[in-house]
Structure formats: C-alpha cells, structure tokens
Amino acid sequence: MADTNYDVLIIGSGPGGYVTAIRAAQLGLKTAIVEREHLGGICLNWGCIPTKALLRSAEIMDHANHAKSYGLTLEGKMTAKVEDVVARSRGVSARLNGGVGFLMKKNKIDVIWGEAKVTKPGEIVVGASSKPAVQPQNPVPKGVKGEGTYTAKHIIVATGARPRALPGIEPDGKLIWTYFEAMKPDFMPKSLVVMGSGAIGIEFASFYRSMGVDVTVVEVMSQVMPVEDAEISAIARKALEKRGMKILTEAKVAKVEKGSNSIKAHVETKDGKVQVIEADRLISAVGVVGNIENLGLEALGVKTDRGCIVIDGYGKTNVAGLYAIGDVAGPPMLAHKAEHEGVICIEKIAGVPNVHPMDKGKIPGCTYCNPQVASVGLTEAKAKEQGREIRVGRFSFGANGKAIALGEDNGLIKTIFDKKTGELIGAHMVGAEVTELIQGFVVAMNLETTEEDLMHTIFPHPTLSEMMKESVLDAYGKVLNA
Ligand SMILES: Cc1cc2nc3c(=O)[nH]c(=O)nc-3n(C[C@H](O)[C@H](O)[C@H](O)COP(=O)(O)OP(=O)(O)OC[C@H]3O[C@@H](n4cnc5c(N)ncnc54)[C@H](O)[C@@H]3O)c2cc1C
C-alpha cells in the first residue's frame, strides 16, 4: 500500500509552495506537495516569468526603434509576429516548470497530482482536478501520486490567487481578457483598454504599446501604480504617455458594451463626464483574490478576511496544524513574499531557533514596464502620514554617466531617511534597470543602515548604482554630480 502519511503536506506548488517544500525537505521533514494544474503556480506559468519574457521582446523592439540614436541603421522596419513572441514566452515558462519537477525529485518530495480539500485537521482528500492543465507543457510528472486520502502533522495552504472580476465587466476570455488571455493572445489587437494600473495592468499596457497597439489605461485612483510614491508615479506616467500611451486617472470603466469583435468602454471621469472608448479588447487588471474556496476551510472554522486566510507572522492560522502562505494569505501578492513567508513558516514548524516573523515593511515591489519602477519601504506621503520627520534625497538619471551612455537618461532615484535617527526608511526608483538596483536598498534597510553607512560605501563607476549613493548624499546636502 502506498505511503500516505507525511510530516508536512503543502497544497499548491507556486513559488510559495514549492520553495517551502524544498526547505522542509532540507530540514529533514517528510514532505509532499499537491498540485492540480501546473508546477510552479501562477508565477512560473502565467505571472512573473512569462510576462518578463514578453517584456524582453518589447524592450528589444523599443531599442530597435531607436537604433538610429545609437548610430545604428536598421534596414526596413522591425516587426513582431505575435505567435513567435508568445511561443518564446511559453517556452521560457515550460523550461522553468520542468525545473520545478526536477527540484521536487532531487529533494525527494512527493508530488500528488489533483485537487486537495482539508477534511479535518491533519487530513486532506485529493480528488480529480477541476482545472486540468491547460498547456501541453504540463504533463503529469511520472511516478507521482494521485487521488486519495493523505495525512500529515502540518498542512500548509499555498493555493494562490486568481483574477478579480468586477460585476458587469466579468472577463469572458474573448472580448474581455484577464492576464491569461493577455499573456497568450491569438492575434495582436490594434487597440486595447487596460482597466487598472497596478503592476499587472501597467506591464501589459507597456508590452502592448511597444508592439504598436493603441493603449488606453483607465485607473480609478489619482495616479498610475497607486501604491508607488507619487513623484515616481508621475515621472513614469509622463514617460509612458511620451511613448504614446493614453492614461486616464480618477476614472472608472462603468460599463462595457460588447460588439461581435470589439468593445466600447464607457469611462466615467471625476467630473461625471462619460467618454466611450472603442477598442478591440479590454484587459481587466483590477487585482486578484485568494483561492480560498472548496478547501474545506469554512467547516474547519478557518478565519478569512477579504478573500484571504488570516495568519500570524509565521503563517499560522487560527486552527492548530493548519498554515497558509503566499497570495492566499494576503497582500502584498508577490512571489518573493510567498517564498519568504513559506520559509519562515516551515522553519518555525521545524523548530529552527530565532526565526523572524514576516516584516511586510521591507518587501520590495517591482514593475517591469518601460520605464521600470521599483520601491521598498515608506513613500514620502506615508512617512508624513505617520508623522515622521524626514529627509528626502533625489538624483536624476540625466546626471549619471552610465545612464547617458546607455541612452537611458530619464529617471529618478529617491531616498527617504528618518531625520532623527538617519535610518533609511524608503527608497523609490523609476528608470532603466531599477528592478535590479532596488535590492541594494533592501539589504541596507534590512541591516537598519543609516545615511552614514551608505555614504561610507564605495559604489563602482560607471554604474547606474552610483545614483543610489548620490541620492543619499543629496538628502544630506552633499550631492556631488548635480
Ligand atoms: C501577470 C502577472 C505578473 C506577475 N508578475 C510578478 C512579478 O514580476 N513579481 C512578483 O513577485 N510577482 C508577480 N506576480 C504575482 C505572483 O505570480 C504571485 O504572487 C505568486 O505566484 C504567488 O505564489 P503562490 O505560491 O502564493 O501562489 P500561486 O503561484 O498562485 O500557486 C498556487 C498553486 O496552487 C494550486 N492550487 C490551488 N488550489 C489547489 C487545490 N485545491 N489543490 C491543489 N492545488 C491547488 C494552483 O494550481 C497553483 O499552481 C504576477 C502575477 C501575475 C498574474
């Protein structure tokens, strides 16, 4: 008879679930992971990775369109075949998806294929999947277990999230897309309305604009990328508009009329005026909601809040032996948050000493549009709202040698310090490669670095990273190159 008893059972193999499984195995725990659809979850198959592959094609397109400014001549016009761009992106996902299967095998983690439901503390039943794999890249790995009853001392729910739907504007997969259809378009639309300007909406808006699509972004808040620092968001908006994107803020899509192969979005602005925007498709990017349904959570009395499972800083729910991590455990809904939350959770379970609870104030956020946006910690407005006395430093890409050499001289690095202690409490960036730069400030914040430590740090020349130091110097009236 198959062995069905484990130390840890993890439901969901996204970045939260699979990383937790690996750490559990490293800690000597007998571990199994249940997956109903795709190893690697949304992140590898429909989120972080395939979007970055699409955006890489967009970046090359943008560079090619500016070849002349680099002294290069491109004979003819650069064109994109949508099926080839999508095929590359799907190929990248497939490679990483296979990589997760390999990692499970290497770490001797059992993969149980099917849909899990928690029947009582310490027990799950795995049934047939209600969401069979939608892509041929996801064959059921050989030698995995399937439907049945499994037991474990600890059960971790890592079931992720799915697109939020607005009543009356529900995605239909044809005229109103979610990220699933936007990731794998069967044709290149001529025009698009993107509803919502968070990271997902803006990344798709940026990709399609680079592909020559007429894009209108509609955002209900007063700025694009509403969680970002207002100054950074304003610079990004200007740059996106310069690239030909239309952006409407303090505006909402009130109604969508569907034609046979196009839509009419009725957009209501703050002053009560309605404009009708006709487009081939509308992408609904109004956030995501946790996958908390059909897991048996209600029967167990698991506390939830606004579609997510309520946990403490170590992933514990209110039911003994039941934990939750990643998107299903609430915002920020980011892959690196999911991974870190999982590691904290499993190390606590295994009794690793000195495990720190999750500190949500130090989670970086990145948006890979053109120009990129990245941040960590408090925005200037949030710091002021908290009544903190602050010092703010700024340094523009236009004054950095490497940025000019790259032909990427539009952007800003902004740093926020606590005036009394000198502690770095926020860093915000817009411009080329800032999604790679931000980690420098994340490490600094984690080490509770002050302005002095940063000023004593030597940054290599010529790099974009020099602007990080200059921004710090600027906060203290010592900027050198501006
Ligand atoms: C378009 C897009 C772009 C994104 N870009 C980024 C980015 O650049 N950076 C970033 O950090 N984040 C990004 N994200 C967010 C990121 O994808 C999520 O934060 C991350 O995937 C969450 O990981 P998770 O492990 O919590 O859940 P998921 O990755 O959603 O995985 C959950 C898994 O659980 C499985 N599952 C669900 N219910 C069951 C069940 N009952 N039984 C068995 N299996 C089940 C699902 O099939 C899924 O595979 C993006 C998201 C989208 C949609």
Q: Describe the biggest sheet? A: 7 strands, mixed
CATH superfamily of the largest domain: FAD/NAD(P)-binding domain
Helix content: 25-40%
What is the global morphology?
Answer: globular
Q: Beta-sheet strand percentage? A: 15-25%
The CATH architecture designation of the largest domain is: 3-Layer(bba) Sandwich
Bound molecules: flavin-adenine dinucleotide
Question: What does this protein look like?
Answer:
This is Dihydrolipoyl dehydrogenase. Belongs to the class-I pyridine nucleotide-disulfide oxidoreductase family. It is found in: Cytoplasm. Its cofactor is FAD. The protein has about 475 residues and is of the alpha/beta class. The chain has three domains: about 5-45 and about 85-160 and about 290-360, FAD/NAD(P)-binding domain (3-Layer(bba) Sandwich); about 175-285, FAD/NAD(P)-binding domain; about 370-475, 2-Layer Sandwich (Enolase-like, domain 1), CATH 3.30.390.30. Helix content is about 30%, strand content about 25%. The protein has helices at about 15-25, 40-45, 50-65, 80-105, 180-185, 200-210, 230-240, 295-300, 335-350, 380-385, 400-405, 435-445, 450-455, 465-475; strands at about 5-10, 30-35, 110-115, 115-120, 125, 150-155, 160-165, 175, 190-195, 215-220, 245-250, 250-260, 265-270, 275-280, 280-285, 290, 305, 310, 320-325, 365, 375, 390-395, 410-420, 425-430. Strands 1, 2, 3, 4, 5, 6 and 19 form a seven-stranded mixed β-sheet that branches. A five-stranded parallel β-sheet has the order 8-15-9-10-11. The longest helix is centred in the N-terminal third of the chain and has 25 residues, at about 80-105. The chain is globular, with a radius of gyration of 24 Å. The termini are far apart. The structure holds flavin-adenine dinucleotide. Flavin-adenine dinucleotide (FAD) binds next to helix 1, strand 2, helix 2, helix 3 and strand 4. Flavin-adenine dinucleotide binds near residues 41, 115 and 338.
